[in-house]
C-alpha cells in the first residue's frame, strides 16, 4: 500500500515579497536529518527530491511535497514524516541555512556535479538573466501590494455590512461545533485537572504554511490535499475580503490550549495576519474557509462535513452603494493579481532560459548516486 501525499507551500509570492515559512517544516528538536540543497537552476534539485519522496511513498510512508510558488511544477522540499527527515532547496529566494550542522543539518553542494568552466563561458548571460528575473519579481510584488491595499478596502466594506451581533453569532457557531469534538473536550478537562494539581501544562505547537499560492500557472489551491483523510471538517463559506482570522484565531487557540499541535495556513495576500485554515491531525479535525479563490467542493472531501455560511448585508436596499463599491474593488483587486501572474509567467520563461546554461553541464549520473546516498542516510535513522 502506498503512503499518502500531501501538497502544500512552505513559501509564497506575497505583497511583502517572497515570504517563507521554511522554519516550520521540521523543527530542529524533532528532526533526525535535514538536507539543504545548494545549487543553481536546472541542477536537478526538484527531480532529486521527487524521486526520494517517491521511494518512501512506495514503501507505504507518508510524504509532504512542498511546492514552489514561482514554478508550480517544481518542488522546494519534501518531508518524510515517519522518519522526521526533510530535503530542502536552500538556494535564493528561500535560503535555508543549517542551524545545527552535522548534528541535524547536512549541506549538499550540487556545484560539485557541474562543469564550472563551461558554465562560466555564459557568465554574462547568467548574470543578465538573474538581473532581469529580479526586476520582474519586483513588478510582481508591486502589483500584489496594490491588490493588498484594495483587499483591505474590501475588508473595511464588509466590516460595515456585517453587524457585531452577526459576527458574535458566527463565533458562537464555530465554538459550538468545537464543543461537539469529544477528544477536544476530554483534553480540556484533563488540562483543567492537571492545572488544579499543579502539574506542568503542555501547550500545543503551531506550524505555519500556505495551502495555496500565486504562481505563473495561476492561483493554485491544495486545500483538498491537506484535509484529505481528516475525519471531521468544518467549512466556513465566506465572501472575498472577510477577515477569517476573526473566527479562526479562536479555533487555533482552543486546540493549542488543550495541548494539541496544529497546522495554520495563511493567505498569501496577508501572510502574517490572515489565518484561513486550521488543521489538527491528532483531533482529526480541520476548520477551513471557502471563498471564490479557494472553493471547497464537498464532493472531493472524504470526511464528515459541517458548513457554516457567513453572510453580509450588501444586498439590502440601504447598502446599494456599498455593494457597488465592493464589487468594483473586488474586480480591481483581482485584476492586479492577474497582472502579477502574467509577469510571473515572464519571470518563469526567463528562469527557463537560465536553466539551459546549467542542464547540459551537469553530471546527472552522479546525481543518481547522491539520491541513493540521501535515501540510505534517511533510512539508517
TrEMBL record:
<protein>
    <recommendedName>
        <fullName>ATPase</fullName>
    </recommendedName>
</protein>
<dbReference type="InterPro" id="IPR027417">
    <property type="entry name" value="P-loop_NTPase"/>
</dbReference>
